[in-house]
Automatic annotation (TrEMBL):
Domain of life: Eukaryota
Record's protein name: Reverse transcriptase zinc-binding domain-containing protein
Length: 119
C-alpha cells in the first residue's frame, strides 16, 4: 500500500509500513486496539491530531509501550499528499493486478506431485 491522501488506507490493518501491517510488526500493541477501531481508522483520521493514539485501550506493559514508541516514530515521519492511496499487487513486478498473476498466486508455495507417472 502506498499512502497518498490516507482516505482509504486502514491504519491498523493495511500493509503500509514497508509492506507490513501494524498487526504483523507490532502485535502486542495491535491487541490493545478494539476490533471495531481496527477496521474503521484510516490514515487520514489517525494522523489528524494523533487520534491513532486514542485507539489504544487497556493496560500497557513494557512490550506495548516499546511498540507504541516505534509506531509513534513512524507516524511522525508519515506525510499525506493530495494523490489517492494506491494498492500495490505484490504478485507482479509492475504492482498491477492481472487474472493470470492471481491464478499463479494460488499455487505459490505448493508442490507438484507426479504420482500418475508412477503407474
Amino acid at each position: 500500500m502506498v499512502i497518498g491522501n490516507g482516505l482509504t488506507t486502514l491504519l491498523w490493518e493495511d500493509r503500509w509500513i514497508n509492506g507490513q501491517s501494524v498487526c504483523e510488526l507490532l502485535p502486542n500493541l495491535y491487541d490493545c486496539i478494539p476490533k471495531r477501531r481496527r477496521t474503521a481508522r484510516t490514515m487520514a483520521d489517525g494522523l489528524n491530531g494523533n487520534s491513532w493514539a486514542r485507539d489504544i485501550h487497556g493496560n500497557l506493559g513494557l512490550h506495548e509501550i516499546g511498540q507504541y514508541l516505534q509506531l509513534s516514530q513512524v507516524m511522525q515521519h508519515t506525510e499525506l499528499s493530495a494523490a489517492p492511496d494506491q494498492l500495490i499487487w505484490k504478485w507482479t513486478a509492475s504492482g498491477t493486478y492481472s487474472a493470470q498473476s492471481s491464478y499463479l498466486a494460488t499455487f505459490h508455495g505448493s508442490t507438484t506431485c507426479y504420482s500418475w507417472k508412477l503407474i
